[in-house]
Amino acid sequence: MDKDTEYRERLLAEYKQAVLPLLRYLPWFEQNAGQAGSTFYQGPEFTENSMSIPVYDSTLMSFVKEASVSALMDRNYSYIYTRNRIGTHDDERRMIAAAELRDWGILQGILSKYVMGGRTKSTLWAQGVRENIFLLVLRQMQGIIEYWDKPVDPR
After folding, report:
1. If DSSP codes are grouped into helix, strand and coil, which group holds residue 128?
2. Where is 38: in which H helix or E strand?
3. How many angstroms separate the CA atoms of 126 and 25, rounded?
């Protein structure tokens, strides 16, 4: 029994250390919930034949940069999607809402899809903000840590 408690406490310490730096972005995600998180460049030389270039909010880019080097990234996130039959944003939100401590890997996989996948398909970063995926994942991770440990101060 003590081994289970020690193991859980060690896991929580690792999780807390990984997610704590990202929690400072929660107010920004709450403020921008449902919004795009990006705009398209419309310079003076822009014509109807010009290619649109997305311009991302600096806070979003800071979050992506910080999250991409955190221990929360899982390069095999696609397996989490196939293993759990996640196909739509509603599936993602349902999995996030139901996640518990044992489902931490699912939360990591969903977060990884939007952070790492955004390197090759940058619209994923904007989708993560617009569909509230970043917000929901961070809130759920914070909730899990606070349930098993103590309240987290993101500052």
Report:
1. helix
2. strand 38-40
3. 15
Rounded mean pLDDT, 133-138: 96
Q: How far is CA 71 from CA 3, 17, 111, 148, in A?
A: 24, 9, 11, 20
Complete DSSP assignment for 49-107 = TSPP-EEE-HHHHHHHHHHHTSTT--TTHHHHHHHTT--SHHHHHHHHHH--GGGHHHH
The answer to whether 140 and 97 have CB atoms below 8 angstroms apart is yes
Maximal C-alpha separation, the chain: 68
User: Using 50, 70 and 90 to split pLDDT, how confident is the model at 123?
Assistant: confident
Taking each helix axis as running N to C, give the angle between helix 123-130 and helix 133-148, from 0 to 180 degrees, rounded to the nearest 10.
60
pLDDT tens readout for residues 19-56? 999 999 999 999 988 777 666 656 666 666 666 677 77
Cβ–Cβ under 8 Å, residues 84 and 95 = yes
Per-residue pLDDT reduced to its tens digit, 10-22: 999 999 999 999 9
